[in-house]
Design a protein that fits this description.
Arc Repressor Mutant, subunit A; 9 strands; Rossmann fold; 7-stranded mixed beta sheet; 357 residues; two-stranded antiparallel ribbon; globular
Length: 357
């Protein structure tokens, strides 16, 4: 199947639009980090002074941010002709789902945190390009970590348990009756916690090599009162804790330096008739240029984050972000899996694979 031909606007127009978009993402970042959206949503509308007092920010900054958000169409203003201090600004419900509701399928505010995380380390990325060195994941800091966890959370808390796991041949019956499931590369633990809530009889493990992510996950689970065992360990250690009925690699496979080895470990960790669920980028079947918005976004993450972090371990598969279906199938075969099925469930940004030994 060939990709649909793409026609792009002139480059000067696209770069101008991208600059506007980047600056507006910074506006969302400020609203998110300073907690400005919540009071606006709850109150149904605030003036400059009311937002300033509610959030503990300087009134001059409050005014400028409110005006910028209204100009950008994030907020609505009751009467733009009023004096600046008298205008009331509100956050429409549709926009609140995008910037204020962390579990909404439309929630995209974490993208701003990811962008800021990349911006903070871009000089290290420049240096890595010159030398072939790496930029460790930890260098991207808490903004990127929380952004990545937050952007995946809505799908992991709904679609994963409502459609992804039920679409597998193993189904959800095993987990409902008390099976064992491991989330490999669990990040901040949203997927593992979702599974634990949906299948309270199941034994759920979350495993990640990043200590900060595991610490976050343990804290979130304790706060929510969800029973998950989170461990900081390498993917190769998974088989030491098996057998598992399901092993999940959710937006993880492309980031691994030794992906076939990790899949081999997952296969060894499976119980009889167990299966691996892989969710990774829903990119085109093959490279084409120019590309779709999805391809453009994935290559953008790749050049600034995924590839530099993957160069930490050597030798590295250095996949980048754009992992195509053919490569997933090749890696699965190398790891000893005999069957790879693309699931019919809607994965959104992800393509869903079930791997069977």
């Amino acid at each position: 199947m060939s990709a649909t031909p793409v026609t792009l606007a002139p480059l000067d127009e696209r770069l101008f639009a991208a600059s506007v978009g980047a600056l507006e993402l910074f506006g969302v970042y400020l609203g998110d980090r300073l907690g400005l959206y919540g009071p606006l949503q709850r109150a149904g509308g605030l003036t400059v002074d009311e937002l300033s007092h509610a959030c503990g920010i300087h009134p001059r900054y409050a005014r400028e941010w409110l005006e910028q958000q209204a100009v950008a169409g994030v907020l609505v203003v009751d009467d733009a002709s009023k004096d600046a201090e008298e205008r009331r600004y509100a956050l429409p419900a549709a926009n609140a789902a995008v910037v204020a509701n962390a579990t909404s399928p439309s929630y995209l505010a974490p993208l701003a945190r990811m962008m800021v995380g990349i911006g903070g380390v871009i000089e290290k990325v420049v240096a890595a390009y010159k030398t072939g060195a790496c930029v460790p994941y930890s260098c991207y800091g808490p903004d990127f970590r929380h952004g990545q966890g937050g952007i995946n959370r809505p799908a992991f808390e709904s679609a994963l348990v409502e459609s992804w796991l039920p679409a597998m041949s193993i189904g959800a019956t095993k987990l409902a009756n008390g099976g064992r499931i491991a989330d490999l590369g669990c990040g901040q633990g949203w997927a593992a916690m979702s599974v634990a809530r949906a299948f309270p009889k199941a034994e759920v493990w979350g495993i990640d090599a990043d200590p900060s992510s595991v610490e976050d996950a343990r804290g979130f689970a304790a706060e929510a009162g969800v029973r998950v065992r989170f461990e900081c360990a390498d993917a190769a250690a998974l088989s030491d804790h098996g057998p598992f009925d399901v092993v999940m690699l959710l937006e993880v496979l492309h980031d691994l330096a030794r992906p076939a080895e990790a899949l081999r470990g997952a296969r060894r960790a499976l119980a009889k008739d167990g299966a691996v669920l892989v969710a990774d980028e829903a990119v085109e079947p093959k490279f084409t240029a120019p590309g779709s918005d999805m391809e453009r976004m994935m290559y953008g993450w790749s050049i600034t984050h995924c590839l530099p972090t993957q160069m930490v371990e050597q030798p590295s598969a250095a996949i980048g972000t754009v992992i195509r279906e053919s490569l997933v199938r090749d890696l699965a075969a190398e790891a000893g899996f005999l069957r790879v099925d693309v699931l019919a469930a809607d994965g959104g940004f992800f393509r869903l694979y079930e791997l069977r030994a």
